[in-house]
Automatic annotation (TrEMBL), chains A, B, C, D, E, F:
Protein name: 4-carboxymuconolactone decarboxylase
Chain ranges of the Carboxymuconolactone decarboxylase-like domain: 38-119
InterPro entries, alphabetized: 4CMD/NDH-1_regulator (IPR052512), AhpD-like (IPR029032), CMD-like (IPR003779)
Pfam families from the UniProt entry: CMD
GO molecular function ontology, one term from the record: peroxiredoxin activity
């Protein structure tokens, strides 16, 4: 893909800041010839084109992503963005409020799944903080 | 959440009757400060506001849930409600008919997934009945 | 499509009984060389393969369809099946209960849309009964 | 539905503040015996249970709803909530940012539809402000 | 958005070739300060990043879009891409085959809607060819 | 289900050719009294009614399925059809192009999931080819 370098570089910086160096290093290291194209595309568009914009603060963008990923039913990316939200300064209470709002608009099964996944991430982070 | 007590209590009773005491005890015991709010909300709304209504019998409500959860693509809740449906007096044939109908309206991949999950629940119940 | 004749014929009979002769005549008359294939496919599969099965009564099949079509967000077919449900002996209260249950499981926006569409069909049927 | 009075009353107040008296009066006036149950349920749950919570400000709740309604593909409710968002103090730029973020996560067709609908609401509000 | 010029220009050329100059002129002329950002984003990403790639021919890309837009339930964009598909050299029979395949995988309601919309576009094109 | 024998037989042949004898043998062997009905229905409709049609080549049908299954969010069937696509003569690059196109139209989370699953299938096939 003819992703121009500056867009990709800008996106990669923001992605590192939001999701953490460790996560991004792992994603890049795991990329294969087959998957590299989507890593580049997502870094350039989601992070380079959208998250780079100053119009909304990162905390709000994180909360929006949690709401959308619940509605879209994408558990893997949802968990990644729970981590990102907490790194971006969202509190557990912020996340709780967003997910409860999904219960009313996306239905109870969507919200129950989102709470279950977010709880797992919170547990993992607690474990990780104990071991470091 | 300012869930009034009577709604929650009424919902909890019905939820126990439909999903079984063991399942509900487990859900309540596993609830954390983070997830408790959604447990309360779902008990009060799905069970206290909707399932408590006399307009449809529980067997029909279970079948409707299986159809909706297949369409909504929510495997965890789907499996919970297969158990509930069998407890509510739905036969395996009732469930089979509902799931085959999803093949026509939600598409083959949705129905194949639903049959696979329902089959697993049926197996588990058979195992459980052998060990008790 | 090599739809065998008996399946199609059986499906067409049931479709007429559920949706009404007038609706089915109109669908068939409007079919073009381009759309005929899907009319035949749907008649043979949904009606000939699924609705023809004795395992569930038609009233329950109609209620399941209303729940699925709400979850799937398909307003045109939803309205067709509200009509079908009333022809199949579902009461307005049955439909009301199903749609309220969608509010809890599919979310409020899905249910609000479903109630709006069902109300329109009920109005139309009232008008039609006045003019005949 | 046994919606307790205080929840409904609290929800109705917030719904009026967010969506405007005119909109809410119209909804209530148009409610029929058939649709009243969902009006009451939505007022009590979405507005009385969720929007009443102090954990997130209304501006953020509006932005979350726009993101979810785009993902869920519910144009009618989306337009209602664009109006609500502007009443809640969201700027056009806030809305623009949310909808552009949906392009990356929900896909281009979802975002194009959301921009089209939001533009129509903005036009309508401009017309209304000229005629009053 | 910091869409680099070459990506946008490349995307705009392809978009014109696929959807026609008239359609693209209209989209650009109708763009407002509010909607311009999504027009630029979509032109740069969908058309500049993806459609510009040589790995699949345009006819196949059109058929893929029709299948995805049916699954995603996006009628407006679906109709735009039916036109694009016919311009790209897809035959009516190609489109018919794709849409029948959606009946099996996305369910009958999705396919019925897609056939209805595609039929309307075919009618419009017939009318347009008569008047020019 | 009154699936006529010739449709089922024709479907079974094509399903074997596309998905491989081993996969189909396993599916049939695992079928229970509960799940057999959906195996028969899917073989007769998806394979017997749709894939049997000469209007599109199998390679294109496979690519369409990958796009639809990504949009529909059905990981199990998606993985089955990645295998089928490679058997049908689709190259890894073809699949890569389809999945990148889903990023633009279905959103980044859908495409990231699809790439992850397809990569796993590619790995498994590599392992299998080493051990045989």
């Amino acid at each position: 893909m003819s992703v121009d370098e500056s867009r990709f570089a800008r996106g990669l910086d923001i992605r590192r800041e939001v999701l953490g160096d460790a996560h991004v290093e792992r994603s890049l290291a795991q990329a294969t010839d087959f998957t590299r194209v989507v890593q580049e595309y997502v870094t350039a568009t989601c992070w380079g084109d959208v998250w780079s914009r100053p119009g909304l603060d990162r905390r709000t963008r994180s909360l929006l992503n949690l709401a959308m990923l619940t509605a879209l039913n994408r558990p893997h990316e949802f968990s990644v963005h729970v981590r990102g939200a907490l790194r971006n300064g969202c509190t557990q209470q912020d996340i709780q409020e967003v997910l409860l709002q999904t219960a009313a608009y996306c239905g109870a099964p969507a919200a129950l799944e989102a709470f279950r996944l977010a709880q797992q991430v919170i547990e993992q982070l607690r474990q990780e903080s104990l071991t470091t």
